[in-house]
């Protein structure tokens, strides 16, 4: 059972990571695939992934939900419910898969394995979601989306998840070490 101080620490960490994720949406945004400039990379999943590794899969999904709601109402309001849904599902698969694998055995190897499997799982899940929703969003038929899968959509999702996972790997271990050293019971 968590005491009040541990609950406050967890809530503060979750709020800070949510804020960092939203700020990153404004600061880091650029196209990854020249043939599909509408597919923009953003670093919003990095703080969410860090939160899920620090606090567990459920906390990661709660952080992600808050980020997706704020993003849908502000930064990406033009993409509407489709953008919200696709972002939440894609990132949920990455975050939940990666953190669940890491949670079972908290080692550097399980962190890498979780991030790799999470990235691949996100990419696979995005194929049918793009087939259904991208055509609706763009006002194009399914054949148009099918034609974009191999040259744009699949590489974009692999690159986005891969970059976010690599950055998460690079910053998670030092952050985790700092928290262990300075905040007793942060991960309870």
Give the topology.
Blueprint: H1 4-27, E1 29-31, E2 40-42, H2 45-55, H3 57-73, H4 80-104, H5 108-138, H6 142-182
Stated plainly, the CATH topology is called Arp2/3 complex 21 kDa subunit ARPC3
What is the beta-strand fraction? under 5%
Strand order of the largest sheet: 1-2
CATH architecture field: Orthogonal Bundle
Q: What value does the average pLDDT take?
A: 91
Helix and strand element order: HEEHHHHH
How helix-rich are the residues, as a percent range?
A: over 70%
Briefly, what is this?
The protein is mainly alpha-helical. The chain has helices spanning 4-27, 45-55, 57-73, 80-104, 108-138, 142-182; strands at 29-31, 40-42.
Task: Pick out its properties.
single chain, 188 residues, mainly alpha, Arp2/3 complex 21 kDa subunit ARPC3, two-stranded antiparallel sheet, 6 helices, 3% strand, globular
Describe this entry's structure for a reader.
With 188 residues, the chain is mainly α. It has one domain (4-28, 39-182): Arp2/3 complex 21 kDa subunit ARPC3. The chain is built from 6 helices and 2 strands, in the order αββααααα. It has helices at 4-27, 45-55, 57-73, 80-104, 108-138, 142-182; strands at 29-31, 40-42. Strands 1-2 form a two-stranded antiparallel ribbon. The longest helix is centred in the C-terminal third of the chain and has 41 residues, at 142-182. The model has no long low-confidence stretch (mean pLDDT 91).
